[in-house]
């Protein structure tokens, strides 16, 4: 059996080497994250297989997924897990045979837990939506918890928030004192949504919206906002580049980033080879050394070491590092995926109410 | 009786095993209910994901509880011989009267029915079934026939303690609940094993399965002294509401039995009522842990919403229990109480007369002040607050409300719903354990032997001769059919049966209890009292005053031994 697998591997490798000319289009999120991916995943993949990687960028909007995937010839997409669940259920993604992609699938499943190998997605890293503030804005008393984000009396200034109902509603309930374990239960009720949006009312007139993942850190840096919600890796990268900002880990929202293959891909074999490569613990660890997004596998976490060139111990900056405090919330991806329309509708109504001057 | 060391080993092992099993059973029941709630679109977290398909949602909301009702009725009809839900009153009765628990088969059927009731969204509680399940597991120890005094009762108490300890993640409350509600005395012999069982439950819930504390709450303390008066007033109001709640449960149960709706369809009717109400008031479905949390958040409910929800939950719970769903009153009481507490605060806040420390403390006070009289366990509820919230200030506030509520409810209703239900079944504990046991013991248990017994067919002279040869002053005479005819006194000289027979000063029948006998015997002079079968008039035997007093002393001694037992 082992011999057979080995033979198969050699076959595959030589086939890969032979057809090296056709590039694989991998879709990423741009910025510091994409730079880390190029160094840790894409380049080593090309070196190992001879398949060149062409990088495309995507903002996660599900409405444009089908059109762009087929028009631009996407082969592998880096997605947020809820979006992947939705796209999978809509038939936009290929079903994955995890047993074929992963070595020793049973052990791998345990290695990935609590992340799940879902029908169309392979978890790759763990990121946190955290709050950060401009150090220059609060020289005295500093924000320490999620409730401070909603408190413009104690901490005046603009808040940079993603223009989406994805994370801010969870934060609103955490700020009401709801324990993390109950946040999704409460947000599932009409009353819970009303409460969360009421909390958001406190920020009316103090919000600057962002849409691209890198904008939050930029807004803090150029003074458009004094506090921001954003991804921990982006804030870390901005700090590395000299931005004076601090991260508050209280109430961090932990989510999974996954790999998926669009149904329209022309090279499913090569795409699966890419997934197989990217799921290796050493590859995952290499990414985490360049941007502090935790690897989705336990065995990879142990390999995370120092940032190349800078010597920063990266494990301390991962979302799941123990010193970040006890209050965090693991994002419920299926729930997010299945309540997207409802939340979007309520969020749009809230935005509209603000424009009409009602309840502002 | 076994050696003390031997007894200690048996008690400890029994506490560990029963504690572990009861704890696992409680966790299993909780998980099964959660799973069903999720699959059957009862839990809001599941419902919201199907929000777009309105027809499916509406159908599920109305039909699921109704279907649950039908299944519950079928389970009770065909799987249970008792054909009724079993709960804490059955546990208390078994322990207080040293009886065996109801058969295992009935217990399992009742538990299954409770799982369906809760899983399908009926407005009933989960803690009653959990307590019963723990007690049922503890009850099996009796069958082992181990030579340790009081072991059956202690084993049942261990199961109860572990169940509460696991359910609330509150070992101290579990321990106290077992004593306050089930054992009703504190002895070292019982205290040690129940503590071990409660700790075992805690270990399972907290260390092995890592269940989170149920109700962590941020609260910075009571800010104003006058608020303690408000807590007391809230306690009094809660007592009134609790009495209303309990009376409604008893009233509806009594009416249901007399209603033209067949028993098999009754739970379905209640389920339908829950489903239809849930169409516009989804908070009434199931245990309502979301509403429980919302009640502690300022502004989550308007005053009108709170009032309607309190009323709806009160009526629907009484309807579900009265119409035959299987489940407890504990968690509905928690919910009604917390909503009422929030309502009290909302009214207070709107009046702007007095400063308060926020809604949370009033909600918690209301929750406990309403629950405590229903389950008859003030100390347990105070400890539950402490262990659930891990907040000392809130505990002190809740204590004030609980005490006043209990005082009123005990005076005007009874110790608890369980006790009143038991009293209606003829096991009245309201005047203490001793009196209850004497009341439960028929006088036929202490019949006196060796009396002079004769028939009217015998020659009167021969009977007189037998009487003279005995220590007795009276002979007891039956007629030809075996019916009691009267007494023949040694001092009486009449020569024929008709004029010699006297009607005795006092007679008992087979329904007379030892307690009644003791009351009747005041001022009685004579040998003994004939005990006559009520329907046939047949003489069962006689009972002497000494035998009745002996029975009383034996009972007192048994209880005294139990209450002072060390090992």
Provide structural commentary.
Chain A is of the alpha/beta class and about 350 residues long. Chain A is built from 17 helices and 10 strands. In chain A, strands 1, 2, 3, 4, 5, 6, 7, 8, 9 and 10 form a 10-stranded mixed beta sheet that branches. In chain A, helix 2 runs antiparallel to helix 14, helix 8 crosses helix 9 and helix 8 crosses helix 10. The longest helix of chain A has 19 residues. Chain A is globular and about 60 Å long. Chain A starts with a helix and ends in a 5-residue tail after the last helix. Chain B has about 575 residues and is mainly α. Chain B contains 23 helices and 7 strands. The radius of gyration of chain B is 28 Å and the shape is elongated. The termini of chain B are close together.
Question: What are the SSEs and their pairings?
Answer:
The complex is a heterodimer of chains A (360) and B (567).
Chain A: H1 2-18, E1 24-28, H2 31-49, E2 53-57, H3 65-71, E3 76-80, H4 81-89, H5 98-101, H6 105-112, E4 122-134, H7 146-149, E5 159-162, H8 168-175, H9 180-187, H10 190-201, E6 207-210, H11 215-221, E7 227-231, H12 232-240, E8 245-260, H13 268-278, H14 281-288, E9 294-295, H15 298-301, E10 328-330, H16 333-338, H17 340-355
Parallel strand pairs in A: 1-2, 1-3, 5-6, 5-7, 8-10
Antiparallel strand pairs in A: 3-8, 4-7, 4-8, 4-9
Helix pairs in contact in A: 2-14, 8-9, 8-10
Chain B: H1 4-39, H2 44-47, H3 54-79, H4 88-96, H5 104-119, H6 127-139, H7 151-168, H8 171-183, H9 188-208, H10 227-258, H11 266-280, H12 289-294, H13 303-322, H14 330-351, H15 359-375, H16 378-389, H17 392-412, H18 417-424, H19 433-440, E1 452-455, H20 460-469, E2 474-478, E3 484-489, H21 497-500, E4 501-502, E5 508-509, H22 514-520, E6 528-532, E7 539-544, H23 545-564
Parallel strand pairs in B: 1-2, 5-6
Antiparallel strand pairs in B: 2-3, 3-4, 6-7
């Amino acid at each position: 059996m082992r011999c057979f697998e080995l033979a198969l591997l050699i076959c595959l490798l030589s086939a890969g080497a032979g057809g090296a000319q056709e590039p694989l289009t991998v879709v990423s999120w741009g910025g510091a994250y994409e730079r880390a991916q190029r160094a840790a995943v894409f380049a080593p993949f090309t070196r190992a297989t001879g398949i060149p990687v062409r990088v495309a960028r995507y903002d996660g909007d599900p409405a444009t997924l089908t059109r762009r995937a087929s028009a631009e010839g996407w082969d592998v997409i880096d997605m947020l897990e809820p979006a992947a669940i939705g796209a999978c259920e809509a038939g936009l993604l290929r079903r994955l045979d995890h047993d074929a992609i992963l070595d020793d699938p049973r052990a791998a499943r345990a290695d990935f837990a609590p992340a799940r190998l879902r029908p169309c997605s392979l978890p790759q890293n763990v990121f946190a939506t955290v709050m950060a503030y401009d150090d220059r804005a609060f020289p005295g008393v500093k924000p320490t918890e999620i409730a401070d984000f909603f408190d413009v009396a104690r901490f005046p200034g603009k808040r940079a928030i993603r223009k989406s109902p994805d994370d801010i509603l969870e934060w609103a309930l955490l700020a009401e004192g709801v324990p993390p374990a109950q946040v999704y239960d409460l947000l599932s009720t009409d009353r819970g949504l009303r409460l969360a949006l009421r909390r958001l009312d406190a920020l009316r007139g103090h919000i600057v919206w962002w849409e691209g993942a890198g904008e939050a850190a930029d807004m803090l840096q150029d003074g458009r906002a004094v506090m921001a919600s954003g991804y921990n890796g982006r804030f870390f990268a901005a700090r590395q580049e000299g931005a004076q900002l601090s991260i508050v880990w209280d109430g961090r929202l932990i989510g999974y980033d996954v790999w998926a293959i669009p149904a329209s891909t022309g090279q499913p074999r090569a795409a699966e080879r890419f997934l197989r490569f990217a799921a290796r613990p050493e590859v995952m660890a290499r990414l985490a050394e360049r941007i502090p997004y935790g690897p989705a596998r336990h065995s990879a976490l142990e390999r995370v070491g120092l940032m190349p060139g800078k010597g920063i111990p990266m494990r301390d900056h991962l979302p799941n590092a123990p010193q970040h405090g006890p209050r965090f919330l693991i994002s419920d991806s299926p729930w997010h995926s299945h309540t997207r329309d409802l939340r979007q509708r309520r969020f749009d109504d809230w935005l509209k109410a603000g424009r009409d001057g009602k309840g502002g | 009786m076994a050696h003390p060391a031997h007894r200690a080993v048996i008690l400890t092992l029994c506490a560990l095993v029963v504690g572990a099993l009861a704890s696992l059973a409680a966790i299993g029941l909780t998980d099964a209910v959660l799973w069903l709630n999720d699959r059957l679109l009862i839990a809001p977290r599941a419902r919201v994901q199907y929000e777009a398909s309105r027809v499916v949602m509406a159908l599920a909301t109305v039909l699921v509880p109704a279907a649950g009702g039908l299944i519950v009725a079928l389970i009770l009809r065909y799987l249970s011989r008792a054909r009724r839900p079993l709960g804490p009153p059955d546990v208390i009765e078994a322990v207080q009267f040293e009886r065996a628990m109801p058969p295992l088969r009935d217990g399992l059927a009742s538990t299954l029915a409770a799982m369906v009731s809760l899983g399908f969204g009926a407005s009933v509680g989960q803690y009653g079934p959990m307590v019963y399940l723990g007690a049922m597991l503890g009850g099996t120890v009796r069958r082992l026939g181990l030579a340790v005094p009081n072991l059956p009762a202690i084993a049942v108490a261990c199961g109860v303690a572990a169940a509460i300890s696991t359910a609330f993640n509150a070992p101290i409350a579990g321990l106290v609940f077992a004593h306050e509600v089930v054992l009703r005395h504190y002895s070292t012999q019982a205290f040690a094993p129940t503590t071990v069982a409660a700790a075992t439950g805690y270990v399972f819930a907290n260390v092995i399965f890592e269940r989170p504390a149920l109700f962590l709450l941020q609260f910075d303390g009571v800010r104003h002294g006058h608020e303690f008066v408000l807590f007391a007033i809230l306690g009094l109001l809660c007592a009134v509401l609790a009495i209303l709640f309990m009376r409604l449960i008893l009233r509806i149960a009594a009416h249901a039995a007399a209603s033209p709706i067949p028993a098999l369809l009754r739970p379905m009717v209640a389920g339908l009522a829950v489903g239809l109400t849930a169409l516009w008031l989804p908070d009434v479905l199931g245990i309502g842990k979301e509403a429980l949390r919302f009640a502690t958040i300022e502004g989550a409910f308007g005053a009108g919403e709170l009032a309607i929800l309190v009323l709806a939950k009160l009526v629907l719970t009484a309807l579900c229990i009265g119409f035959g769903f299987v489940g407890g009153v504990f968690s509905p009481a928690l919910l009604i109480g917390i909503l009422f507490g929030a309502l009290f605060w909302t009214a207070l806040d709107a009046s702007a007369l007095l400063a308060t420390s926020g809604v949370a403390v009033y909600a918690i006070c209301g929750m406990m002040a309403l629950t405590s009289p229903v389950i008859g366990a003030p100390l347990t509820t105070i400890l539950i607050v402490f262990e659930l919230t891990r907040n000392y200030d809130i505990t002190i506030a809740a204590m004030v409300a609980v005490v006043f509520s209990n005082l009123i409810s005990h005076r005007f209703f009874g110790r608890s719903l369980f006790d009143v239900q038991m009293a209606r079944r003829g096991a009245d504990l309201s005047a203490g354990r001793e009196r209850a046991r004497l009341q439960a013991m028929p006088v036929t248990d202490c019949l006196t032997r060796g009396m002079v017994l004769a028939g009217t067919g015998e020659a009167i002279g021969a009977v007189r001769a037998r009487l003279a040869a005995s220590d007795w002053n009276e002979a007891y005479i039956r007629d030809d059919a075996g019916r009691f005819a009267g007494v023949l006194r040694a001092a009486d000289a009449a020569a024929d049966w008709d004029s010699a027979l006297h009607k005795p000063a006092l007679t008992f029948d087979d329904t007379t209890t030892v307690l009644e006998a003791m009351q009747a015997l005041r001022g009685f002079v004579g040998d003994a009292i004939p005990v006559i079968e009520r329907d046939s008039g047949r003489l069962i035997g006689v009972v002497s005053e000494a035998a009745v007093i002996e029975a009383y002393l034996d009972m007192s001694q048994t209880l005294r031994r139990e209450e002072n037992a060390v090992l």
